Amino acid sequence: MDKHILVTNDDGVLAPGLLALAQEMRKFGRVSILAPDRNWSGGGHVKTLDRALRVREYRLTDGSTAFASDGAPSDCVALATLGYFKEKIDLVVSGINIGANLGHDVTYSGTVTAAMEAVIAGVPGVAVSLEVPDGFVGTIDFSLAAHAAGRVVQHVIENGLPSEILLNVNVPYLVSSELMHGFRVTRQGLRVYHSRLDEGIDPRGKPYYWIAGDAPTGVVERGSDIGALADGCVSITPLHLDLTSYHALTDLNAWNWDDDTPIPFFELPVQEKKQKP
Fold this sequence. Notes:
By secondary structure, the protein is an alpha/beta fold. It has helices spanning about 15-25, 75-85, 105-110, 110-120, 145-160, 225-230, 245-255, and strands spanning about 5-10, 30-35, 55-60, 65-70, 90-100, 125-130, 165-170, 185, 190-200, 205-220, 235-240. It has seven helices and eleven strands. Helix 1 crosses helix 5 and helix 2 (about 75-85) runs parallel beside helix 4.
């Protein structure tokens, strides 16, 4: 069961959730850590191509070595799988994110898109997020989420994952493992966002715009990731990168794409050149 596991996240290399995850993953093999050097929450799936990436070495609080890149979480995974670590990466585990990644969140989440980047590289990927109550104050306990991540990874190692499949794991925030009601394999639920645009003028008199709003909520439905967390269960959602809407293919193919109706063409007026005096 000895594997080379890459641990990454989107909260930054010094985030406590990353350390908790790395310590749990050491039960299953050799762990290498390569994560962003700052918080990339909500950064989505990014690939940096217009500049060089830099990597620095860090020492975590348990004395272990970690590496941090100035790129996005997906950049960190690309660096690792393309050869920054000379040994082949067998599994990528991303997290433990502070806050659940449910429903449409997966398109924004750096935690999840790091696992997506692993799948693109042909490596199994698991994303782990911990639901933290809105307005929570105090030290976050990652022990239950780390334990849940270990259970999931153990099954992945023993059974494997189909190609192009990643697992999005969300753990409810509970004060005791005795309150956890088990694991559920789920579908993506419906996330409801309460965004608003705040406008203002900065001290230099220039306008600025800030996307703000209340924390997202969700529709609690049985079988969904949101429903599982509401029931105190760990949600495991298999995701794939093929975003094709197959049920829409039939409708779209019924449209008359090959008729003889000409496509409108709008010719821009030609500007006359000014005569030189």
